[in-house]
Design brief:
By secondary structure, chain A is an alpha+beta fold. Chain A has a five-stranded mixed beta sheet. The mean pLDDT of chain A is about 95. By secondary structure, chain B is α+β, with helices and mostly antiparallel strands. Chain B has eleven helices and 14 strands. In chain B, the strands form four sheets. In chain B, strands 4-5-10-6-7 form a five-stranded antiparallel beta sheet, sandwiched between helices. Chain B has a four-stranded antiparallel beta sheet with strand order 11-12-13-14, with helices on both faces. Chain B has a three-stranded parallel beta sheet with strand order 1-3-2, covered by helices on one side. In chain B, helix 10 packs antiparallel against helix 11. The mean pLDDT of chain B is about 95. The chains are: A alpha+beta (about 160), B alpha+beta (about 290). Chains A and B meet through strand 4 of A and strand 1, helix 2 and helix 5 of B.
Chain lengths: ~160, ~290
């Protein structure tokens, strides 16, 4: 039982394969599926770089074992942006919401889940929603402006 | 970071989980939402040969009204509690939930996990203490109920045996003119509190009919301020000297110091937080 059977839908594609039980969802996505858009910063749930959607909810993929996603639908940054830049990504570009880009996938995925539930957020709500994602170079003003721009364009997707 | 290898169990019935825990004893650990356990495993601060994931046991999810209380299944997520209509009958729950981590954490973190993990700086254990919640625990000999006052033993330690599973928590509902408040001091939003307070006030006109106050982050378990509750009960609200009450509570505390805050700082935080939550709760109860 150190290795377990896993069936999970990732970015619309069903995947069935054995996985080591201790493998986190983040490592499974990056190392087993080569979906390296999901970034790992702190690996203990603080930085938010590894945020993915699990059945539509934003979660930390470093705080889950892959096997816990059995039967679920996982969407990564690659799945959100299959048709080119999403409106949220375009807003990050327009507002200079990124510099080195390491934290960006986590921010974009978090913003995606947040705007889906809060299409018309206040500044306070945006700040609160982004408080679980850390950026170490750009600063937060551009990121907050990007989410505001995406919201005012009516883009949750 | 990789946790040490473990055997993964995912029983679909409670009895199966208990059997596994009985078989492996201290070598096994229950996995709920994993938002505290998985980092402990990844950092190798803890290791277990067996993890028993409760996610497939459907009976452990859900919120219902039972005998004047709200019963919350242990595997119900914090995010679910915050928006559930039944849970709204216990306003402290949703208010405390907003202080737990970030929404990405609350989407996975569970009520049972938070209570069973028994972190002294966590919000739900303090709510359970303040409200005299009852914890429903299942083991090889059936189900038993443990009051919150007897449940939290020390940092990360509860009165549950290694082969027992927390099934649900029952939070009593208060009726009438009630007000509620949760506040805490943390370095940043989502950080563990250095000191926090939860309180409930029930008014009969201007008279306090019932009061509940608990603090967290100031000891190895949440601290119920029963002395203050007694002082408040029967008093006329506008006669109360709330800053003095805050000072009295603070004087009874002996909080531990760590790199986040010294014991003395935490005592001062309690002195500030107690009147703040009491004022908010009384004000809300007056307008209820």
């Amino acid at each position: 039982m150190r290795e377990v059977a896993l069936t999970v839908t990732v970015n619309g594609e069903q995947i069935s394969r054995p996985v080591e039980a201790r493998r986190t969802l983040a490592d499974f996505l990056r190392d087993d599926l080569s979906l390296t858009g999901t970034h790992l910063g702190c690996e203990h749930g603080v930085c938010g770089a590894c945020t993915v959607l699990l059945d539509g909810d934003a979660v930390r993929s470093c705080l889950m074992f892959a096997v816990q996603a059995d039967g679920a639908e996982v969407t990564t940054i690659e799945g959100l942006s299959e048709g080119g830049l999403t409106p949220i990504q375009a807003a990050f570009q327009a507002e200079h919401g990124l510099q080195c880009g390491y934290c960006t996938p986590g921010f974009v995925v978090s913003a995606h889940a947040f705007l889906a539930e809060h299409p018309d957020p206040s500044d306070e709500e945006i700040r609160e929603a982004l408080s679980g994602n850390l950026c170490r170079c750009t600063g937060y003003q551009g990121i907050i402006a990007a989410v505001k721009r995406a919201a005012s364009n009516g883009s949750s997707l | 970071m990789k946790p040490a290898a473990f055997d993964y169990h995912c029983p679909d019935e409670l009895a199966g989980a208990i059997t596994i825990l009985q078989e492996y004893g201290d070598e096994a650990k229950v996995l709920a939402g994993g938002q505290s356990l998985i980092p402990l495993l990844s950092l190798r601060l803890s290791r277990f040969d067996h993890l028993v994931d409760l996610r497939a046991i459907e009976d452990l999810r859900g919120v219902s009204a039972v005998d004047g209380s709200i019963r919350i299944g242990a595997m119900t997520t914090q995010a679910h509690v915050a928006r559930n209509e039944n849970a709204a009958a216990v306003p402290l729950l949703a208010r405390a939930t907003s202080h737990i981590g970030h929404y990405q954490i609350r989407n996975r973190g569970t009520v049972g996990g938070s209570l069973a993990h028994a972190d002294p700086a966590a919000e739900y254990p303090a709510v359970a203490m303040a409200l005299d919640a009852s914890l429903e625990v299942a083991g090889p000999n059936g189900t038993r109920r443990i009051s919150a006052a007897n449940f939290f033993m020390s940092t990360w330690a509860t009165a549950m045996d290694p082969d027992e599973v927390l099934v649900a928590a029952h939070f009593p509902v208060w009726s009438g003119s009630t007000g509620w408040a949760v506040d805490e001091v943390a370095r940043r939003v989502g950080d563990f509190a250095m000191c926090g307070a939860v309180c409930g006030i029930q008014l009969d006109g201007q008279r306090v009919n019932r009061a509940a106050l608990a603090l967290f982050g100031v000891g190895s378990v949440p601290v119920r301020a029963r002395g203050v509750e007694a002082t408040l009960t029967g008093a006329t609200v506008d006669d109360l000297d709330l800053p003095a009450i805050g000072a009295d509570v603070a004087a009874t505390l002996d909080p531990p110091g760590d790199l986040h805050a010294s014991g003395e700082q935490r005592r001062k935080m309690a002195k500030t937080l107690v009147p703040r939550v009491l004022t908010a709760a009384i004000d809300e109860a007056k307008h209820a």
